[in-house]
Structures are given as C-alpha cells and as structure tokens.
Specification:
536 residues; alpha/beta; Rossmann fold; Phosphoglucose isomerase, C-terminal domain; 3 domains; 21 helices; 48% helix
Length: 536
C-alpha cells in the first residue's frame, strides 16, 4: 500500500516544472483560498507550490499522525514528554483561569500565585518601593542562557514602544566580554540582577552571576539584596544569599525554550508593566484557543507546520529563513532558531527507532530590509531554494515616520513577489538591450540578471506589533513546532543534544590549564597545547 508520504512525494514529482504563477492563473481565488486568519493575524501561504491536491494530502497526513489527539493530551496535562516523563504545560502559564490537572492536582493555583507575586514585585520596583542601595532601580541585568535569555531578550526588544520601566540588559555568554560590556557604565547601587536558571547550576549562568555579585560588592554593602532568582532550587538560591521572597520558581513541565510566559519573563514585566505583560499572555492564550478548537484546515499553527513539512520533508529544502520586516523583531529569528532546532533537531523517533525522514530544518534570518543587502542574493539566485517566512505589521508605532513604514512594507511585499515571479532570460535580454548592449555581451550580461523565481514564501500580516500580537506570534510558532514534531513522530520537548559538549567541556578545562588529562583525541590535545603557547 502506498503511504501518505509516498503520495505526497508523487504529487510533488507530478508538478514537474509547474510555476506558482500558473496556480494563480488556474484559480483566480487562490490568494483568498490559501490565506487563513485568526484574531487579527493573517497567514498568506498562497506563494508556495502547495495546490489543492497537496493541501488535502497534507491535511490527511496531519490527521493520520494523530495531531488532534496529541494536541488534547498536551493541553490536558498528559506526560507527552515521554523521554523525561513530564507534562508539557507552558500553555498553563498564559491561561490563568483554566483548570489543568497534573498527577491528579490542579496546577493553575500555583501558577496564578507565582504570577501575582511577580506582578506585586514588578509594581514595587517600578513605583520605587523596592529600591537599590543608591535609590530607585534604573537598570535590570538578566543573566541566563538558552531559553532563559532568548525569549525575554527577544520580547523586551520587540516591546520597546511600551517600555516605561527600568532599562533591561541581557547577559548570556560565558565569554567574559559579554558581562564586561553589559555592566560597563551601570551603577551597581541602582541595578537589579536577575539570575535565571531553573536548577541554579547552569555553569555559564552561575559563572556570570558570581561575577555580577563581585562587581556589585565593590559598591554596595549587601549585593544579594539586589538579586532576584528565577529558579526552583531554593536551597541553592539561599546559599547564594537571595531572600526567598525574591525567588520565583516554575515547574518541570515548563521547558526552557517555552518559558517566557512565566518567571523567565520577569524582565519583560519589569520593562512594560504587569498589565501589558498580561496582554502578552492574553495573545498567547488566544492562539491556544484557536489552535485547540479550529479545524485542521483552518488552523494557523497546523497550516504553518504543514507548509514547513512540505518544503523540508517533501521538497527537500534544507533551511528556512524567518524575515521579520520589523526592526524590533531583531531577535525573533534567533529565538525561533532555538525553538525549532532544539525541539525538532532529533535523529530518532519517540520509540527510539531511527528517523526515515529529515528532522527539522536549519532556521535562520534577519530583519528586513537589512537582509536584502546581506543574503537575499543567495535567496533569489542561489542554486538551493530557501523558503522564506515574512512577518509584517500594517502599522508601526512612529506615526511621524509612517513614510518609513510604507517603504518597509513595500519592500516586504516586493520581495515575496520577486521570489515567486523571478525574471526570465527574455526579460533580462530586453533589459540589457534597453541599456544599449547587443550581441555576445548582451547575452553574457543577461544571464547574470536572470532570477529563476518559483521560490516559496509565506507572509504573516498583523495590524501592529502590540503585546497581544507578540503573544500570538510566539504561541503560533510554539504550536507549529509541536505539530511538526507530532507528524515526524519525535519528542519536541527534550534536548539531549546539548549535553555531550557540556560534559566534555568539564574534562577539557584541565587540559587548557596544563594539567594531565587522558581520553582526548590528538587534535584536541594539540589545540590545547597551542592555546597554552599563545597565552604564554
């Protein structure tokens, strides 16, 4: 019997050299039919080679993979993270009125209590009741890595128009240059340091936290009084000197890369205030409600996932570019890079068998229009198509600079059109002829100006980048990753791939200090020797 995957591959092969433009010509309503809306978000996926037949097969694939049942299991608190024996309930952090059972207990009460404590602390700090030794807190330094950095850093940058609290800075890298540059110019007496580590053992984070404490100790009498911990390890936070009233914990059913909705998002709450933070949560909850209730054929996360499956597993395109035409979404590609590649960059299925299909793609990107002057050359004329995901707001926040925004939007839409249409050799010849070229030189120059086109893209259109809209976008991509993982049969909620290198680093460190160390390969030993020589 032919499998659904084989039928999809056959359908793609049968399309041959068909061009996207012909799909629009054959179906005048294609732009409308292949666009889907929910709560003010519009996803246009018409500029792909997914036709009605491919769409139906992809929906059959999703249904057959059990997406709906798995979705309900996640929302209901089942332990779908099977390799770690955990529920997956980051959704509970943004729906404080729900009732969710884990091991027979309703967890929402604890979530709500932590949220309320965060909000009270944020109000105290923002209104000056919680202060540093030098007075009102002016700066917040968030120390974390991975999900404890990428999510809040992305969100704080995105929400810049709503900042009315302290300035926020983010330290993640164990490279001393990171914390040196971030602390430079700050006043320890008016700085709050947030240490974000669930276990309070993450080596990069704790190394930076100790450095920050030493920096503060040179200026204030009680450095720990200006530290907050986002952690569940109360014994370790106490050893560090942080008062329990300034420790905000979260459960093991919240994965790091899904944690911006709770205590890990404290820096965002401090920057924009509890009320606007709640709007961010509401946007995520609205997307949850849509994802949980909408039919597969009208479901934004499902459709975005199916577009991704089509491009990577069926068409064989190895990467995906996320291109937000909003400079404040500067860190969104990096955030989604972790979300998607750490979640779905696996090699075995849930049952431990080898995957027979490629797992997740490489995800990368930059904001427009910067990317146009960096890597769009490859996107337009390179030999390997790169599916592009454009994100655009209809309105910016700077009304006096609206002409900038119109130009930005024009570039976004023009790029998606150019990727689809391209430029034929005949069109390039005409262009060169208009410049006065002829003969062999015309032909030579024309070939360099051919754009193959037929390159796929989607466009996510929002009204304005508000806290609510940001919540929608983040939750949309979270659920997209979940659906892709279900279809591929993998666990999107563990990350064993980050472990081995960290373990070996502890063994390499003595080698760099000149101590005897066994078990290393010849290349690593020689690199360590040369490293020591260069250090003198």
């Amino acid at each position: 019997m032919t499998t659904i995957w084989e039928r999809l591959a056959d359908h793609r092969a049968a399309q041959g050299e068909t061009r996207m433009e012909s799909l629009f010509q054959a179906d005048p309503s294609r732009a409308e039919e292949f666009s889907t809306s929910a709560d003010g978000l519009l996803l246009d996926w018409s500029k792909t080679m997914i036709d009605a037949g491919a769409r139906d097969l992809l929906l059959e694939l999703a249904a057959g993979a059990g997406v709906e049942a798995r979705r309900e299991a996640m929302f209901s608190g089942a332990k779908i993270n099977e390799t770690e024996g955990r529920a997956v309930l980051h959704t509970a952090l943004r729906n404080l009125s729900a009732s969710v059972q884990v091991d027979g207990q309703d967890v929402i009460g604890g979530v709500r209590a932590t949220h309320d404590r965060m909000a009270a602390f944020a109000r105290d700090l923002r209104e000056g009741r919680f202060a540093g030794q030098g007075g009102r807190i002016t700066d917040v330094v968030n120390i974390g890595i991975g999900g404890s950095d990428l999510g809040p850093y992305m969100a704080v940058l995105a929400m810049a128009p709503y900042h009315d609290g302290p300035r926020c800075h983010f330290v993640s890298n164990v490279d001393g240059a990171d914390i040196h540059d971030k602390l430079k110019g700050l006043d320890p007496a008016t700085t709050l340091v947030i240490v974000a580590s669930k276990t309070f053992t993450t080596i990069e984070t704790m190394t930076n936290a100790a450095t920050a404490r030493d920096w503060m100790a040179g200026s204030v009498t009680d450095p720990a009084a200006q530290f907050v911990a986002l952690s569940s390890a109360l014994d370790r936070t106490a050893d560090f000197g942080i008062d329990p009233s300034r420790v905000f914990g979260f459960e093991d059913w919240v994965g790091g890369r899904y944690s911006v909705w709770g205590p890990i998002g404290l820096s965002l709450m401090l920057a924009i205030g509890p009320e606007r933070f709640d709007e961010f949560l509401a946007g995520g909850a609205a997307m949850d409600a849509h994802f949980r209730s909408a039919p597969l054929a009208e479901n934004l996360p499902v459709l975005l996932a199916l577009v991704g499956i089509w491009h990577h597993q069926i068409c064989g395109y190895p990467t995906r570019a996320v291109l937000p035409y909003d400079n404040r979404l500067l860190r969104l590609p990096a955030y989604l890079q972790q979300l998607e590649m750490e979640s779905n960059g696996k090699r075995v299925a849930m049952d431990g068998s080898d995957l027979t299909l490629p797992s997740g793609p490489v995800v990368w990107g930059e904001p427009g229009t910067n990317g146009q002057h960096a890597f769009y050359q490859l996107i337009h004329q390179g030999t390997t198509p790169v599916p592009c995901e454009f994100i655009l707001a209809a309105r910016g926040h700077e009304d006096a600079l609206d002409h900038h925004h119109i130009l930005l939007a024009a570039n976004c839409l023009a790029q998606s059109e150019a990727l689809m249409r391209g430029r034929s050799l005949d069109e390039a010849r005409a262009l060169m002829a208009a410049k006065g070229l002829e003969g062999a030189e015309l032909e030579r120059q024309a070939r360099h100006r051919v754009f193959p086109g037929n390159r796929p893209s989607t466009t996510l259109l929002i009204e304005r980048l508000t806290p609510f809209a940001l919540g929608q976008i983040v939750a949309l991509y979270e659920h997209r990753v979940f659906v892709e993982g279900v279809i591929l049969g993998i666990n999107s909620f563990d990350q064993w791939g980050v472990e081995l290198g960290k373990e070996l680093a502890l063994k390499v460190e003595p080698l760099l200090k000149g101590e005897d160390a066994v078990g290393h390969d010849a290349s690593t030993r020689e690199l360590a020797r040369r490293f020591r020589l260069l250090r003198g």
